[in-house]
Design goal:
The protein has two domains: 122 residues, no CATH class; 169 residues, no CATH class. Helix content is 26%, strand content 29%. The protein has seven helices and 14 strands. A hairpin with a 2-residue loop joins strand 5 and strand 6. Helix 1 crosses helix 2 and helix 5 runs parallel beside helix 6. The N and C termini lie far apart (65 Å).
């Protein structure tokens, strides 16, 4: 029996909460097939200090702590819930478990599982491929700035609200970019810059550059929690953006080059329902997206 056949047989027979050892091709190494909470996959032991969680379009790679033969072990697991693609997934699992010559591939996997994920996501896709970490970082930095000023601010961006941050006396839409010079922002929908008459709307444009030193989602998140924001609330919001604890995107660091605030008032170019006759979007128009050039507008440092 080869390793793919053994994995497929184990997928069919392992019960929920159980782990079955994989024997084929595992000389000098350990590996298991498991089922847990509706997911199935394979696992290998890894250094206890390591923590990660990354996603493919149809699978997940992450670390967990589980009891194995009476001992608490840290495991690196590749798992999925796509039963219809079980045969195809078994082939990927076999490659994942392959120790290679003299166990070199297993050592490389357990030393740097993120490198394995980065290679395979080019082929398998990534469920969060369109997400930009610096966009969330920009929103978190604005949230932190407002809270440090004693303003009661709530982060709504991951909830797909019409504004990213709602605060006492004002609302904020945050747009972030890695471009050094461009000042064009994309507006998604006719309601995004539709400010209320009673609540002023501010647009904050943040300019970042990747850097080996600087701010990351994790660093700002820690400060927000230290400042009194509930960790559970923050983690739930980050998860909605696909930014789970242990994910590489949360550790990406950026330097904030510029932060400018613009008042979204009658002088600000925008398309809202009030732009149309009778203040109503024409029947049949379901979405309006457009770009705004901020370079001709008056802004102030934020």
């Amino acid at each position: 029996m080869n390793v793919v056949q053994e994995i497929l047989e184990a997928f069919a027979n392992v019960w929920d909460g159980a782990m079955l050892p994989v024997k084929s091709g595992q000389i000098g190494t350990e590996a298991w097939v498991f089922r847990e909470d509706g997911r199935f996959g394979v696992a290998v032991p890894i250094a206890a200090a390591m923590h990660m969680l990354e996603f493919f379009s149809g699978a997940k790679l992450g670390t967990v702590e589980r009891e194995v033969n009476g001992h608490l072990r840290t495991l690196l697991r590749l798992d999925s819930d796509c039963e219809a693609l079980r045969n195809e997934f078994a082939v990927v699992c076999a490659q994942f478990l392959d120790p290679g010559t003299d166990g070199k591939d297993r050592i490389a996997l357990t030393m740097n599982p993120l490198a394995w994920w980065n290679r395979w996501r080019q082929l398998l896709g990534n469920a969060n491929r369109n997400h930009q970490a610096y966009s969330t970082l920009g929103e978190l930095l604005v949230l932190e700035r407002l809270r440090n000023q004693g303003i009661d601010a709530k982060w709504l961006g991951p909830l797909r609200s019409t504004v990213d941050i709602e605060a006492a006396g004002a609302s904020y839409e945050v747009k972030s970019t890695l471009s050094r010079y461009a000042s064009v922002v994309h507006v998604a929908g006719q309601f995004q810059l539709n400010s209320s008459a009673n609540v002023p709307l501010q647009l904050i444009h943040q300019r970042f550059e990747p850097s080996t030193v600087g701010e990351s989602i994790d660093s700002v998140s820690r400060r927000l929690v230290d400042g009194g924001m509930l960790s559970e609330v923050l983690e739930e919001l980050l998860a909605r953006d696909g930014l789970y604890a242990g994910g590489a995107a949360r550790a990406e660091t950026y330097r904030l080059l510029e932060s400018t605030v613009y008042s979204v008032d009658d002088n600000f170019p925008r398309i809202t329902p009030s732009s149309f006759l009778a203040g109503v979007v024409p029947t049949g128009i379901v979405s309006i997206e457009y770009d705004v050039d901020l370079s001709a507008l008056q802004g102030y440092p934020f």
